[in-house]
Design brief:
Residues 3-159 form the Endoribonuclease YicC-like N-terminal domain. InterPro entries: YicC-like_C, YicC-like_N, YicC/YloC-like. The chain is of the alpha+beta class. The chain has three domains: 8-75 and 125-152, Ribosomal Protein S5, domain 2; 80-118; 154-292, no CATH class. Helices cover 62% and strands 14% of the residues. The protein has nine helices and six strands. It has helices at residues 47-57, 83-100, 107-111, 126-178, 184-201, 207-221, 224-243, 247-268, 272-292, and strands at 8-16, 19-28, 33-38, 61-71, 80-81, 117-118. The strands form two sheets. The chain has a four-stranded mixed beta sheet, with helices on one face. A two-stranded antiparallel ribbon has the order 5-6. Helix 7 runs antiparallel to helix 8 (247-268) and helix 8 packs antiparallel against helix 9. The chain is rod-shaped, with a radius of gyration of 37 Å. The chain starts with 7 loop residues before the first strand and ends with a helix.
Length: 296
């Protein structure tokens, strides 16, 4: 599976005997799958099946789908006469002519009255509408394939950005692991100096107890567990990016874990260099999370 962006656009048109059917679909970010249709009158019945088609192709996103159905020039333009209405109007015209001594009404005049002539393609039988519904759904399926291709193309480009950002997180973790402040000599020197200051300030303090407390504080300040978890998260992120199947939500949760470890790193840091790395890490994680919001 490949990554898929939640933003995309597709327009597709098909011409059939007597009718032209087209769909236009726009897709943007969304927490779930939300589809809003704009359908011509008479096509309301396809709503449920159309939604099912979206569910077969996509997991997340807000979609706006517009259907257009136009009769082509080859469609029959034969008209029919509404005889009951014509007879009623002719009868009324005859009575008015006798009562008010009016000129006789002409066939052209009566035929020009609203409702006397009807265009048959405006009157669709249930069988014809069912066929049109099937054609509209078939064109929708083709349009969804095109939209999926568009979203995957954008998802591929997005995946490259995310991979670089994950690599940036990994590089910062490596910097923290190699930071001179984490060497054994640096830790010994730092706490020896702190113990010496305390003994100078209060000579009565027990030196052995101070060394024990210093060792305890050194253990609490150690960031190895955070670095190990960050490395695990980097590996998980790469697996999700490689799989691509609905990875957006899982990666969003993973960035929360990245951010939690970065915060802990900053709070436990006992050197300015580690604090700087922690802040840089938080900035990269924020960028990572912002991009992931576009991923299905």
């Amino acid at each position: 599976m490949s990554l898929q962006s939640m933003t995309g656009f597709a327009r597709h048109l098909r011409t059939f005997p007597g009718v032209q059917i087209s769909w236009e679909i726009k897709s943007v970010n969304g927490k779930g799958l939300d589809v809003r249709f704009r359908l011509p009158q008479g096509f309301e019945a396809i709503d449920q099946k159309a939604r099912a088609l979206f569910g077969q192709h996509f997991k997340r996103g807000n979609f706006q789908a517009a259907l257009t159905v136009d009769k082509t020039e080859g469609a029959s333009a034969r008209t029919v006469v509404n005889r009951p209405l014509l007879e009623e109007l002719a009868s009324i015209a005859g009575r008015l002519r006798e009562e008010f001594n009016l000129a006789p009404s002409t066939p052209e005049g009566l035929m020009a009255l609203r409702g006397v002539l009807e265009v048959p393609q405006d009157i669709v039988t249930p069988e014809d509408q069912s066929k049109l519904d099937d054609l509209a759904l078939a064109v929708l399926e083709e349009t969804l394939v095109r939209l999926e291709q568009d979203r995957r193309a954008e998802g591929s480009a997005l995946g490259e950005i995310l991979s670089r950002q994950v690599s940036a997180v990994e590089a910062l973790v490596e910097r923290a692991k190699r930071d001179p402040s984490r060497s054994l000599e640096a830790i010994k020197g730092r706490f020896s100096a702190q113990v010496a200051l305390l003994l100078d300030a209060a000579p009565a303090l027990d030196e052995a107890r101070l060394h024990m407390e210093a060792a305890f504080l050194a253990t609490k300040a150690d960031i190895q567990e955070e670095l190990d978890r960050l490395e695990m998260h980097v590996a998980s992120a790469r697996l999700l990016l490689a799989d691509g199947n609905g990875a957006g939500r899982k990666l969003d949760f993973l960035t929360q874990e990245f951010n939690r470890e970065a915060n802990t790193l900053c709070s436990k840091a006992n050197a300015a260099s580690i604090t700087t790395i922690g802040l840089d890490l938080k900035a990269v994680v924020d960028q990572l999370r912002e991009q992931i919001q576009n991923l299905e």
